UniProtKB/TrEMBL annotation, chain B:
This is High-affinity branched-chain amino acid transport ATP-binding protein LivF. Residues 3-235 form the ABC transporter domain. It holds the Pfam family ABC_tran. One of its GO terms (biological process) is L-amino acid transport. The lineage of its organism: Bacteria, Pseudomonadati, Thermodesulfobacteriota, Desulfobacteria, Desulfobacterales. PROSITE patterns: ABC_TRANSPORTER_1, ABC_TRANSPORTER_2.
UniProtKB/TrEMBL annotation, chain C:
GO terms for cellular component: plasma membrane. Residues 4-238 form the ABC transporter domain. This is High-affinity branched-chain amino acid transport ATP-binding protein LivG. Coiled coil: none annotated. One of its GO terms (molecular function) is ATP binding. It comes from the Bacteria. PROSITE patterns: ABC_TRANSPORTER_2 (PS50893). CDD domains: ABC_Mj1267_LivG_branched (cd03219). Keywords: ATP-binding, Nucleotide-binding, Transport. The lineage of its organism: Bacteria, Pseudomonadati, Thermodesulfobacteriota, Desulfobacteria, Desulfobacterales. The keyword Metal-binding does not apply. The keyword Nucleotide-binding applies.
TrEMBL record, chain D:
It is found in: Cell membrane. It is a multi-pass membrane protein. GO terms for molecular function: branched-chain amino acid transmembrane transporter activity. This is Inner-membrane translocator LivM. GO terms for cellular component: plasma membrane. PANTHER family: HIGH-AFFINITY BRANCHED-CHAIN AMINO ACID TRANSPORT PROTEIN BRAE, HIGH-AFFINITY BRANCHED-CHAIN AMINO ACID TRANSPORT SYSTEM PERMEASE. It comes from Desulfotignum phosphitoxidans DSM 13687. The lineage of its organism: Bacteria, Pseudomonadati, Thermodesulfobacteriota, Desulfobacteria, Desulfobacterales. It comes from the Bacteria. Pfam families: BPD_transp_2.
Automatic annotation (TrEMBL), chain E:
Its main location: membrane. This is High-affinity branched-chain amino acid transport system permease protein LivH. The gene is livH. It is found in: Cell membrane. GO terms for molecular function: transmembrane transporter activity. GO terms for cellular component: plasma membrane.
Length: 393, 235, 238, 344, 342
């Protein structure tokens, strides 16, 4: 194979989410090694595009990868804010990009405002928070309804990283909370690098906040939040969406994470478990299903698309890949499922109605709610998947 | 011989100021260096004190070669230097400055003895012992600098222009205190603009011009020397 | 004509009264010597007048106008120049550039047509012993004081303060400085000079002001003050 | 103050060059920069992108040097000031529909106002205190940009329309080269005038300057305002070239980049930073992009260069040039390097 | 006599230090009453940590005239050292929960951080500051400042190259229930971090004020030639000072590892905060720096409480600028002009 196809992998390889970047890198390398970096008579050259968790730097790096390294397609991405800015770059250079995790509404709205232009920003790897984050509140409401937990008053607070993701997830919690009769004490968004939350948490405690819901994509920040939540003596329920987005979170929270809620897909199939073992053996860390796992599925789905494009056109470049994306992926013709070797979700499937999101639901793409104890998560929601009942501290 | 300077060449960077300067001072002597501005008097002192390392030549003190030693090492050998710029510790009090002068002395009671001695010489300093050195007037600072130089009980004192900026009365008292030191067996090398005064108080003198020793001899003789009279006293 | 007048000028530093209610006058053409023991407050006194360290209370009147607390740059443009006890050069500038600052900025706009020539003239006037292109940081104290003087004169002052200009001069050099002071005075500039060298004071000053502990103890014609027993006791010694 | 050459026996070419503050070699350099994008490999888009960044840093370092090199105050919030210009410009285009060109100038005005404020409040401070004040000011401005999400979108990033409706980097390149030169020219004019003398005087000795009749308030504030105005316009360029702004642009580490170039180039020369920026930043970009598996290596090299320069050659490139290169024996070469020299 | 004292107290109250201390105390008490005792606890703990970093910074600035921009990187070195020492210890503890290391392991890690910082400081002096000092003739403050800027960039990126960009953190040093003070919970880690910083700062103050070496350090800070004249070995004092200052920062980094995991730029925030403190309180005054540290901590905590998360740069820096306008040499700064004016 003497033809080369440069592919950009966008991720936070340095900066506060570097751990997730590591997981991306492992997934991509493993998936590529499995096909020996070849599709048809093309050798795939992986170009790492470091977003550094900053939209401006990411856009610059992406443009440079296009101009300098000539990438013909791109895959993955961690942050919404980055997605919002890189979408334009992809559109400007007409480079198809698949499976970015930038989830928030801002991405969808932007996409829907000009589907033609943003057809280069292919199906996302993560749906808008409203589709999944509301599950927490639904779960909590059930718990209150069946009497497992009786909060003194229905006072909640929302926290999150100050990014499109944090705010958008915060918005989803707020809506769901207000709808079920909670009062919101305050909403706090902090820089993605913050690790000192004592003042903030003490404030919540003294206000008598019973339910604290929020998220962060930066592991150091969220693990610190969880740990300090326990330390200052908060007694309520903590939703820490994303704690499990790095596999080794327990090394950083310790028992502080007991009783915390999170929503993380599980490694259920033997392939999935094997994959996790392989990663541990080769890279020395426990991968997170939501980060390493999803990105592994993402890159493998992308390879499937490449194969398809090669099959149809005999040629791989930005146009052929884009065509397949538009014609077959976004229409739901080409999907990636357990049958293809997906390890995390049952099926990754896009339809014109849901674009740029995928089809969400227990049979397709879904996150159960877990409660942690001693470093292990147990599914407490939905009912069918339940492993344990919700427990109060 | 207490101090012997031989063929000293020194300067700043590439700029040579001193050319083959040689001096000898015996124990207990009171020696003066006179010369016009920029002759290199201060440079000579700085070189002896170890603040400038010489290009060539040697400095022997108490039979020990101290050429090229650092300033602090020289100070530990018993040479104290009262510089023209005074180099006080501006954010320390008068008393702290004086204690620092006795840095090489470890015993507390010896330090206090020296302190009393200095306060006796300069009652003004005693009055102001808690004032920060940086807030003192020019003349007060000069006193403090001299006082600090005396604190280490040196065997040789290099004193650069002690009367610079001092009121007549104080000038008199500074010279008087130098006399006291001489009587206490301290050796003094004095640089002073006031040629008449210098030659009147010292026993021996050197005339430095353009970085070279021009004349040397008994102070009394020098004062009578016609060249000195013509050049320095304008007679 | 009265060039400068102070009334009860006082300057305090925290608890210390460095200048205590000093009133004095300088007449046109005077060369006033300001003497006093070290730490008497002489430098502080002229700093208070020239604006570098504004007075705590009291009044300053220059050329008939009240100027209490004006900034040094305003005072300079009004015609007051000064030199510093501890030379205060522009370390990286050449001699001629240093003088040009005052030529250009110290004069009311437009007066000097050729600043370079004027500055050169000033350096010659003070008999500056070095080349005009020498950089200030390479000068020694005495040369710096000359440069300082040239800078002070470059703004064409009507009143000049000199703070210990002659310290560190040999007897021979004192003669030069006397001649220069004489030339300055001939230009019609009134002078207030702080000095410890009595030889110089007695030779050039027509009036003396003596302060001690910040308080004026004598003011008047030179001989009279010099013979004043209070002054003898406080300052000159026996 | 440099002797202004009103030498009448200079020929027209020399006189024009002198007015334009250029030497023949400077002119040659400028021409080289203008034809560079037609010479391979520099004609590739990504190289141009790097060169544009070089130009941005070059121009910024000139503006920075006006304060650092002439009144001896390091404006440690310089990129924050530039960022303010960028945000102002971007917001005016987005919300008021202004043309980016006009908005860029408005950005300059907003930064000038900021400069005026920094200049005023740092008046009584000297040296490192003034630097810290401008630093804190920069941090505060950056903090505001982060927190005023409703206006700036904070860390989410603000998309801004580009100056030219094209994918190509060519027009941006020429624009930044023009900006580099204009910045240099304007600053040079100022420091050649009597203002330059006043700047140096207050930098070197405040008391002496004041007693020589120089009003430090005016000159310091003027200097700050002007240098910040330059940063504002350049910030506008930045916004409308990259097409996205995040408060990250205002970060101290970005100012450090400008400052390093200005100092490696040589403080107080104005041209040093501008000249050094091109090869230096360009090389750093090459290192960064070719050794991307070693993230940060370029910055390690960058830091090493800065450290070595500060220790062994604190005068920077311009000092080196002035002492070792500027005065060759050969007369033609000498003319080439210096232009017609004024007779002193 | 007592009347005299009264008037002395009154002048002090009207002075900048008096005024600002009184205002700070009043604000702290009022806010505590309003919000709850946790506010005071947070302020005290944060202040203690800041004091540690800030005294090191004042030392560099006051004694050596080095406006240290790389100070945060020594904090980082401290946390990195502590991390690599404590990780094996904590694994050992997991297997041997009764070992003496449970109590003393953390101290070993923190001590390691201190030593690591001191060594790093000494190396920096030998490789970087020393050469500069021997060559530099003028412009020392600015040149050394830029040097530390370079040093900061260098250390950050070396960390990234060698140890990676990810966050290296620990669960905590000491296990056990948080202590409750008036309803405010404070974990053992935080309490001990505060105690460690308090002890170290106090020792350091005593050292600087009363020992011969401490006095020598101060002397060097004010006039190097003068210090040399009286027989102080400058090289030794400088080396000692830099090591000390860096060790102070590093021990802060080490003892705070439970809260600030080690990553390349972890030093930035402590650096900013320490500079806030130093500029606010003025130079060369250890007690001033300590008081300043608590003031900045108060500002930070109050901002968090009443303005919201993420504002803790804007509000304190704005306030500090305001204070500087009125008191340019800082609240506790001395009026004597130092070298930094140049
Ligand atoms: N740091 C320096 N760098 C360069 N040259 C210097 C330095 N210090 C002094 N000089 C030069 O060295 C020469 C001798 O200076 P020095 O201070 O020794 O003279 P001096 O005899 O003490 O004069 P004065 O009576 O003025 O004190 C002078 O020409 C002076 O300009
Ligand atoms: N900034 C200041 N803070 C506190 N005290 C000061 C300050 N400046 C001067 N002083 C004090 O004020 C007094 C007068 O000082 P000043 O410098 O005016 O004396 P002087 O008459 O010029 O003496 P000299 O002849 O020694 O120069 C001195 O006691 C000095 O210590
Ligand atoms: C959970 C996520 C990976 C979401 C993504 N970080 C975002 O910003 O939308
Ligand atoms: Mg001398
Ligand atoms: Mg005086």
């Amino acid at each position: 194979a003497d033809k080369v196809l440069p592919v950009g992998v966008l991720g936070p390889f340095t900066g506060p989410s570097a751990q997730n970047g590591k997981e991306f890198q492992a997934s991509v390398e493993m998936a590529m090694e499995a096909i020996d970096y070849t599709v048809g008579d093309y050798t795939i050259e992986v170009v790492w595009v470091d977003s550094q968790s900053d939209p401006a730097r990411a856009a610059s790096a992406y443009a440079e990868a296009v101009e300098g390294k000539g990438i013909q397609a791109g895959v993955l991405n961690w942050h919404s804010s980055v997605a919002v800015s890189v979408m334009d770059v992809a559109a400007q250079y007409k480079v198809p990009h698949m499976f970015g995790f930038g989830a928030s509404e801002v991405v969808n709205e932007k996409w829907q405002a000009d589907p033609e232009k943003y057809s280069y920003w292919g199906g996302k790897g993560w749906p808008v928070p409203a589709k999944l984050e509301g599950n927490y509140i639904e779960c909590i409401n059930e718990v209150i309804a069946n009497g497992t937990w009786t909060p003194k008053k229905k006072l909640a607070a929302i926290y999150g990283e100050d990014t499109d993701w944090g705010r958008s997830a915060g918005g989803a919690y707020k809506e769901a909370l207000l709808a079920s009769g909670w009062e919101i004490y305050s909403e706090e968004y902090f820089p993605i690098t913050q690790t000192d939350f004592y003042p903030l948490l003490s404030k919540f405690k003294s206000a008598g906040v019973e339910l604290l819901a929020g998220t962060s994509t930066a592991a150091p920040s969220l693990t610190a939040f969880v740990k300090q939540y326990a330390e200052v003596g908060n007694k309520g329920v903590l939703i820490a969406s994303g704690l499990g987005w790095i596999g080794d979170w327990y090394k950083m929270t310790g028992p502080g994470s007991d009783y915390v809620l999170d929503s993380i897909p599980q490694l259920t199939t033997p392939e999935a478990k094997q994959w996790a073992k392989d990663v541990k053996a080769k890279y020395g860390f426990n991968p997170s299903p939501s980060s390493g796992g999803l990105s592994y599925d993402g890159i493998r789905m992308f390879i499937k698309i490449l194969n398809r494009a090669y099959e149809v056109y005999g040629k791989l470049d930005k146009e052929t890949i884009h065509n397949i994306m538009v014609d077959e992926v976004n229409t739901g013709k080409l999907t990636y499922s357990k049958a293809d070797g997906a390890i995390i979700m049952n099926e990754y499937k896009y339809t014109p109605e849901t674009m740029p999101d995928m089809v969400v639901g227990p049979e397709a793409y879904f996150f159960p709610i877990l409660q942690y104890k001693a470093g292990k998560g147990h599914i407490i929601f939905p009912e069918d998947w339940k492993q344990k009942d919700f427990e109060m501290k | 011989m207490l101090l012997e300077v031989k063929n000293l060449n020194a300067g700043y960077g590439y700029l040579q100021i001193l050319r083959d300067v040689s001096l000898q001072i015996d124990k207990g002597e009171y020696v003066g260096i006179v010369g016009p501005n920029g002759a290199g008097k201060s440079t000579t002192m700085k070189t002896i004190a170890g603040l400038i390392s010489p290009m060539s030549g040697s400095v022997v003190f108490n039979g020990e070669d101290i050429t090229g030693l650092s300033g602090s090492a020289v100070a530990k050998k018993g040479i104290s230097f009262v510089s023209e710029e005074m180099n006080l510790f501006v954010n320390m009090t008068v008393q702290e400055n004086l204690y620092m002068g006795a840095y090489t002395i470890k015993e507390k009671h010896l330090k206090n003895e020296r302190l009393d001695f200095v306060f006796e010489l300069f009652p003004r300093l005693a009055e102001r012992r808690k004032q920060l050195a940086g807030t003192m007037s020019g003349g007060e600072r000069k006193m403090l600098a001299i006082g600090r130089g005396m604190m280490s009980n040196p065997s040789l004192m290099l004193v650069d222009e002690p009367s610079f900026g001092l009121a007549p009365q104080l000038t008199t008292s500074v010279f008087a205190s130098l006399d006291v030191l001489i009587k206490n067996g301290v050796t003094i090398l004095l640089v002073e603009q006031n040629v008449t005064k210098t030659l009147a108080v010292t026993g021996r003198g050197y005339v430095l011009e353009n970085g070279k020793v021009g004349l040397e001899g008994n102070s009394a003789d020098l004062a009578e020397n016609s060249y000195v009279k013509k050049v320095f006293l304008g007679v | 004509m009265i060039v400068l007048e102070t009334q009860n000028l006082t300057k305090k530093f925290g608890g210390l009264t460095a200048v205590n209610a000093v009133s004095m006058t300088i007449n046109q053409g005077d060369i006033v010597g300001l003497i006093g023991p070290n730490g008497a407050g002489k430098t502080t006194f002229i700093n208070a007048i020239s604006g570098l360290n504004p007075p705590t209370s009291g009044m300053v009147k220059m050329f008939g106008k009240e100027t209490t607390g004006l900034t040094p740059e305003k005072m300079c443009r009004l015609g007051l120049s000064r030199t510093f006890q501890i030379p205060s050069p522009f370390p990286k500038m050449t001699a001629i550039e240093s003088v040009m600052t005052a030529t250009i900025f110290g004069n009311p706009a437009g007066k000097i047509t050729d600043p370079v020539a004027h500055s050169r003239e000033m350096l010659e006037f003070v008999e500056f012993p070095m080349k005009e292109t020498v950089v200030a940081e390479q000068l020694n104290t005495v040369q710096l004081k000359r440069l300082d003087l040239a800078r002070a004169l470059a703004s064409n002052p009507r009143l000049l303060f000199m703070d210990e200009l002659a310290s560190g001069l040999s007897e021979g050099e004192l003669k030069d400085i006397m001649r220069i002071i004489d030339k300055i005075s001939k230009k019609g500039i009134s002078i207030l000079m702080i000095e410890h060298i009595m030889q110089l004071i007695m030779a050039v000053c027509n009036r003396l002001l003596c302060i001690q502990f910040g308080t004026k103890i004598a003011e008047g014609p030179t001989q009279e003050v010099a013979n004043d027993p209070k002054v003898t006791k406080a300052y000159l010694g026996e | 103050m440099e002797p202004t050459t009103n030498d009448l026996n200079m020929n027209l070419f020399d006189r024009v060059l002198d007015r334009l503050c250029l030497t023949p070699i400077g002119l040659a350099g400028l021409i080289l920069l203008l034809i560079l994008p037609f010479i391979p490999p520099f004609n590739q888009e990504y190289m141009l992108r790097w060169l544009i960044y070089c130009g941005f840093v070059a121009a910024m370092s000139v503006g920075f040097d006006l304060t650092a090199g002439y009144i001896n105050i390091v404006n440690f919030g310089y990129m924050a000031v530039a960022g303010t210009g960028g945000y102002t410009s971007a917001l005016l285009v987005i919300n008021a529909g202004l043309s980016p060109w006009i908005a860029m100038l408005a950005g300059g005005v907003s930064s000038a106002i900021l400069g005026l404020i920094i200049g005023m409040i740092s008046l009584r401070l000297r040296g490192i205190f003034a630097a810290c004040l401008s630093w804190f000011f920069g941090l505060a401005v950056m903090g505001l940009a982060i927190k005023m999400v409703w206006l700036t979108r904070g860390p989410l990033g603000l998309r801004t329309p580009r100056l030219f409706e094209t994918e190509s980097n060519f027009p941006f390149y020429f624009l930044i080269i023009i900006l580099v030169y204009l910045t240099y020219l304007v600053c040079k004019w100022v420091v050649r005038s009597k203002m330059g003398l006043a700047f140096q005087a207050i930098a070197q000795n405040m008391d002496a300057a004041r007693t020589s009749g120089i009003d430090p308030v005016f000159y310091r504030v003027f200097n700050f305002t002007m240098s910040c105005a330059i940063a504002g316009v350049l910030g506008g360029f930045y916004a409308h070239f990259y097409g996205i702004l995040t408060p990250d642009m205002m970060h101290t580490s970005k100012t450090v980049e400008i400052l390093a170039v200005a100092y490696i180039g040589g403080r107080g020369s104005l041209w040093g930073g501008a000249v050094v920026a091109f090869p230096f930043i360009f090389l750093m970009e090459i290192v960064r992009s070719t050794l991307s598996h070693l993230p940060g290596l370029n910055l390690v090299i960058y830091a090493l260069v800065l450290i070595l320069v500060m220790i062994y050659y604190p005068g920077g490139f311009s000092y080196f040039y002035d002492t070792h290169i500027r005065q060759p024996k050969n007369r033609a070469l000498r003319y080439f390097l210096n232009g017609r020299e004024a007779k002193v | 006599m007592s009347k005299h004292n009264m008037s002395d107290t009154l002048t002090w109250l009207k002075s900048a230090p008096g005024l600002s201390i009184v205002i700070s105390v009043v604000v702290a008490v009022a806010a505590t009453i309003d919000a709850g005792p946790y506010l005071m606890v947070n302020m005290v703990v944060t202040g203690g940590m800041l004091a540690l970093v800030a005294t090191g910074l004042t030392l560099m600035l006051g004694v050596l005239n080095i406006p240290m921009f790389a100070h945060g990187e020594y904090f980082m070195i401290g946390s990195l050292t502590a991390y690599y020492i404590f990780t094996p210890i904590s694994e050992f503890i997991l297997e041997h929960p009764d070992s003496w290391l449970v109590t003393f392991g953390p101290f070993i890690a923190i001590l390691g951080a201190l030593i690591g910082g001191a060594i790093a400081g000494a190396i920096s002096e030998k490789l970087v500051f020393g050469p500069l000092r021997r060559r530099s003739t003028d412009n020392w403050v600015m040149n050394s400042f830029l040097l530390t800027v370079g040093l900061s960039v260098l250390l950050v990126n070396l960390h990234q190259l060698i140890f990676g960009a990810d966050f290296k953190g620990i669960v905590g040093y000491w296990q056990g229930m948080p202590i409750s003070i008036a309803g405010a919970y404070i974990s053992l880690d935080r309490a001990l971090a505060f105690i460690i910083s308090a002890v170290i700062v106090a020792l350091f103050y005593l050292f600087m004020t009363y020992t011969r070496t401490g006095m020598a350090i101060r002397a060097v800070s004010q006039d190097i030639t003068g210090a040399e004249i009286v027989g102080i070995d400058i090289e030794k004092i400088v080396l000692l000072t830099i090591s000390l200052a860096c060790a102070l920062a590093a021990v802060a980094g080490g003892s705070l590892l439970f809260m600030y995991p080690s990553y390349p730029t972890v030093g930035l925030e402590p650096l900013y905060m320490a500079w806030f403190v130093v500029i606010l309180s003025g130079l060369g005054n250890i007690l001033g720096a300590v008081a300043g540290a608590f003031m900045v901590a108060l500002l930070k905590v109050i901002t968090m409480e009443y303005v919201g998360a993420g504002w803790d740069f804007v509000v304190p820096s704005a306030l500090i600028m305001l204070i500087l306008i009125f008191k340019p040499s800082g609240i506790f700064g001395s009026d004597v002009r130092g070298v930094l004016d140049k």
